[in-house]
Records
---
Amino acid sequence: MHIFMTGATGYIGSAVLDALIRAGHQISALVRRPGQAARLAARGVTPVMGDLEAPHTYLPVIAGQDAVVHTALEGSAKRAEKEALALDAVLPALAAGSGPRAFVYTSGVWVLGDTSTATDETMPVNPIAFSAWRVPHEARVLAAGGNGLRTIVIRPGIVYGGGRGIITDLLKEALNGLVRVMGAAENRWASVYDRDLADLYARGLSSPGASGVFHATDESDERVIDIVQAMANHVVMRPDIRHVPIEEARQKLGGYADALALDQCVRSPRARALGWTPTLRSISGNVPRLFEELRASGV
Ligand SMILES: NC(=O)c1ccc[n+]([C@@H]2O[C@H](COP(=O)([O-])OP(=O)(O)OC[C@H]3O[C@@H](n4cnc5c(N)ncnc54)[C@H](OP(=O)(O)O)[C@@H]3O)[C@@H](O)[C@H]2O)c1
């Protein structure tokens, strides 16, 4: 397939890019810096210099693609606005095409809110304020499907593996002697290994009937405290674990603190029905491997 990607230099996007290259697809990718363009070009990817908020930089490339995979997200407070601009441009361009086409949108399990009981893709969303902007974006993507265009919304859990992301930050804190968690940290995080997540994108694209919402979680339902204890047990100089009150965390992190405090138990039956089987089933059970991946990443 000819696939245009956004976010190919990001944490999720780089894992997805690896999987799509391995599967033999022809990739073009939106990039913001010449150095990134050169690195991607060296891997056979066609770089497209531009920015999410400037659709004229990438719209000409959309025509003729079999699929667009969107994993980019602007880090600033304008993230929702910039993503809306991109959706405004890309969805009609893809809808106007012919032949089978696909659009894959990256959302996240945080749109589900607290899920004390197991929650699958059929359950309604219940986002906290931090993630509320995503819900209309998901709805727009799903509504754009039809006439040969398949639209797919992937909701990853918290991603682990490699040298980036929330779990990697905890591994680094453990190495540095002080791990911070919120409150008692008895809340459960829904999570997924980066390479398993990337495999789901590849499967979704290559499964002709796949459309709609897919959760991507390893279904381990691990408590945050168990994750950090497993990390602490593995480090030679055992780190302190500091329990930060949620109010103090909110002052520092804003609404992001509420996302990290969510208690989530998320199932992925629609993803599994595509034949997707996560190879890693927990963070705490793979701590030595995750420390090794962090070391190998060189960060
Ligand atoms: N990581 C997780 O645990 C996780 C879990 C669930 C859902 N998600 C969601 O998955 C998506 C990707 O997350 P991530 O962790 O991979 O993020 P990330 O590592 O920060 O990557 C963001 C990507 O977006 C690109 N980007 C940012 N602003 C852009 C702009 N204005 N124009 C073009 N490209 C732009 C970045 O390019 P540069 O290299 O130029 O900065 C980078 O490639 C997000 O929507 C996130 O909320 C993440």
Note: DSSP finds twelve helices and 15 strands in the chain.
---
Amino acid sequence: MKKLIHTYGDPVLREKARPVEKVDEAIRALIRDMLETMRAERGVGLAAEQVGEAVAVCIIEVPLEMDRDEQGLLFNPGVTMPMAFINPRLVSASRETETADEGCLSFPDIYAPIQRPVEVTVDYLDLQGQPQTRTFRKFIARAIQHEMDHLAGVLLVDRMSAMKKITLSGQIKRLKRQTREQLAGQAAP
Ligand SMILES: [Zn+2]
């Protein structure tokens, strides 16, 4: 079932996700809903907080054409999409960083250059509850880091440069106000 995307200004986005204790049918159902929601919104990643649930679950679905170098070779051969990460934890990150534009479904129409490590190793539980450790590079590594930020309550606006934040401050304030108005409307009898 497609869910509502929670946008900036909604307090749930600032919550720290609680770990999943048991990978059961309820968690898999949440992941299915998240996938449907992300696809409907044409996103490449989604964290559970963005559908209003502060649990440590995120998904990514990066088109493989975004994972190729100039020669057309995959940066992450063997990776299949979509991927679900339950209780993901950063094991290590490369010292080498890269800056690229990022967007977020919780910040519609807002994009900002964000600096991140080029390569990360992550451990997590898969859909069967099996522990996995994998290393990701380039855009896929960026997408995972963005989603893991969500699980810690860290948002695009916290990662952008001070200068970019000033440039976008009008748009960001407007979004926050719209979100707050929507929430107030939902709370009214
Ligand atoms: Zn996001």
Note: The two ends are 25 Å apart (CA to CA).
